[in-house]
Write a structure and sequence with these properties.
This protein has about 130 residues and is α+β, with helices and mostly antiparallel strands. The protein has 4 helices and 4 strands; from the N terminus they run ααββααββ. The chain is globular, with a radius of gyration of 18 Å.
Amino acid sequence: MKSAEFSVIDDDPGLRELLEKTRQVGRALQSRWEGSKPDYNKLAKLLGEFSTANVYLIGRDGKILGHSWISEYHSEEISNFLEEGYMPEPFVEKMNQHRETVLSETDAYLYDDEAGETPEKHMLYIP
């Protein structure tokens, strides 16, 4: 069998940055291969840093596996969900309807404490 040679792309800063971020996510998930569960809070923190967004990793049953907030965000309602360890059933049912990644503008404000002028937000469901 002929050995495969790889063409390394190292002259594009954007691709280098994407590659490094992908490697960090891979390292965060590697514990899974060692028989233990991934560190979901670490993974959420990495994803939050990459996207400058709040991240919630939620199981199909609504259990909150990990989360990360951007520093200037606070929601009393979501804080209560985090303390309980589960998202509310209507949210879980809606989340579980998606079979592929979906971007929603209307769901982005579901659990905000205050209505009013808020920055542009989106909810991204990734099954």
